[in-house]
């Protein structure tokens, strides 16, 4: 939104149009579940099936490109653990898609690997950091020395002039290090987002939720820490993937995910199988006629409608996928969403009260 | 053989319905927004379409005079060159005349 006019920017208009017409500009392929970390809260749930071969991944990429996707994210597991990562990434570029890479950054401590990544001309690279100190990060990844490697990888990427974004899932172990993590990001000129939600594993195991920070922390996070960590900005009131229309988010609409077995999913969090990309002729037909996708899109609209009926509904960042995995119902309000919404609502109430002339909250 | 103006091979782009389109410049991690006409022209800058052929297409689609379309295309291609969104070709100047 333009600050001066309050009107959508040209970019927002185009992306908004793509959202309302369900034109997916984004796709993500989990090219493997293999990983060189053992993160305690990882949501991946390999089933033991055979993962797609490299030629099959190429076939999937061709169908995705033919469908008109603009941004293609390679992720995993750990994407760079795939033995053919660079061949796959080169194919993404050859097909004319903008390449994003999600990685833990460990292997990027090797400058030679970073130079190979640079040669791909990626649009951006996102790296997950789990702490401001080695002990914390390594405790969460369960790999000794991983913090040092990740930070070295970060520095190598920045030195090569590549665009790097950092992401940090907030856990009970790193919640007191957010400002140190922010300092690390700032020292490298990298943008950072803090993820306030820990999700269950894709197979429904709730074990990762034991790492959630408590409600008292999140009240303070939204009221005090958020603005300081995000350049003075107020907490967001919608999902990052919401298009501003009648749907809660972009699941099955603005993008989709493909797992290592070729299953097409409405998004990375909503693990309902739409079809297998190796068994279809074209994505276009599936995108238009899939009953799974129609239901998912309707559910996203229903979620928005239900949230709008709540007094705190305007402050929700709600994920249907997390709701389904955690509670078995994509419309059920899970505790983390409710805690965050309540805390964010309070922030906006305090601001509104402080804005009224001469009147402050009790 | 004359090679006509060609979009930079590192660009990724997509048209979005009738709203225009997006062009991603990975080397600079930038995204440009193009109008519907501009994205149509950009999609035809594949080194195989002459400015005159593109002008004919635009004139038909948007019901404008071909001469006007050609002028606009040449100005647009010059802007793309300024922004580093074209591949370097030896005959680019010739193709724009």
Description:
The complex is a heterodimer of chains A (362) and B (97). Chain A is an alpha/beta fold and 362 residues long. In chain A, 40% of the residues lie in helices and 11% in strands. Chain A has a nine-stranded mixed beta sheet with strand order 6-5-4-3-2-1-7-8-9. Chain A starts with 9 loop residues before the first helix and ends in a 7-residue tail after the last helix. Chain B has one domain: Arc Repressor Mutant, subunit A, CATH 1.10.10. With 97 residues, chain B is of the alpha+beta class. Chain B has a three-stranded antiparallel beta sheet, with helices on one face. Chain B is globular. In chain B, 32% of the residues are buried. Classes of the chains: A alpha/beta (362), B alpha+beta (97). Chains A and B meet through helix 1 of A and strand 1 and strand 2 of B.
Compose a concise summary of this entry:
The complex is a heterodimer of chains A (362) and B (97). Chain A is of the alpha/beta class. Chain A contains twelve helices and nine strands.
Top CATH class of chain B: Mainly Alpha
Shape annotation of chain B = globular
| Radius of gyration computed on alpha carbons of chain A | 20 Å
Number of helices of chain A: 12
Please mark out the parts of chain A with pLDDT under 50 across 5 or more consecutive residues, or reply none: 356-362
Helix/strand/pairing class of chain B, anyone?
A: alpha+beta
What's the order of the H and E elements of chain A?
HEHEHEHEHHEHEHEEEHHHH
CATH structural architecture of chain B: Orthogonal Bundle
